[in-house]
Here is the input.
Amino acid sequence: MDLSTIKQRLVEGDAQGTVDAAREALASDIPAEAILRDALIPGMEEVGDLFARNEYFVPELLLSARAMHTALDVLRPLLVGGGYQPAGKVVMGTVQGDLHDIGKKLVAIMLEGTGFEVIDLGTNVAPERFVEATRENGATLVGLSALLTTTLPAMEETVRAIHQAEVAGEVRVMVGGAPVTDSFARQIGADGYAPDASTAVALARRLLGSTAG
Ligand code: B1M
Here is the structure.
């Protein structure tokens, strides 16, 4: 099974076909990381391009997103398999008004895979819910994701709420998502920005190392 078939089935929104193709690839020793990096992520990018060109609409996006989630569920144990020592507790969520959760889920899987405990609050998460969950769980890192330019203000509001809460000083905030940039992250007072899931892991390690000191 070649990676282009997995990608094609994802673009077509064929969840079962995507999973079957991913399983066949795994059986022929293609690593889970390669399936993710070279088939699933480019597939979602192509779906986004089709949407931007008005060739796909929301129902097609939903079908491909469902195929992506189903495939991620199959890959998750393999991506998480190499877990190390517990590295810290992270509260993660997509900011208020934003329903995109595939990128956030990937970041969560990679963090879990490198030994972090992740409390995933899901999507459309209000600033106060982030503060509450951070307190309840004694987390020292909060990860905020946003995919819409229109929800960037909610990201800023969430960072502000965390800074204003008692948890400020003990908790670091990292941000990411397609419209987020390093300069935006600095502007809103976040402690760090990661453009992708593997950079997010390195950033989380760095930020938690800095809180421990
Ligand atoms: Co929407 N959508 N969508 N969508 N959607 C985008 C984001 C868009 C760019 C499409 C386009 O126009 N080309 C566009 C946003 C334009 C903008 O704001 N600039 C858009 C739009 C407009 C919309 C709606 C408004 C459409 C409508 O209703 N008219 C609507 C909004 C709904 C809402 O949120 N309130 C909408 C809805 C949806 C669906 C629900 C149908 C579906 C989401 C399903 C789901 O997530 N369960 C969907 C999808 C699937 C997309 C695209 C096609 C794919 C997103 C995705 O999953 N990418 C997207 C186009 C695109 O991105 N090319 C699009 C794959 C994923 C692995 O990448 O999420 O970027 P990404 O995550 C990366 C990095 O960004 C980073 O690491 C990840 C892995 O490398 N990262 C972090 C992410 N979070 C991080 C956090 C970190 C660190 C790194 O630290 C905490």
Remarks:
- The CA atoms of residues 11 and 73 lie 18 Å apart.
- Strands lie at 88-94, 116-120, 141-145, 172-176, 192-193.
- The chain has two domains: 3-81, 89-209.
- The first helix runs from residue 3 to 11.
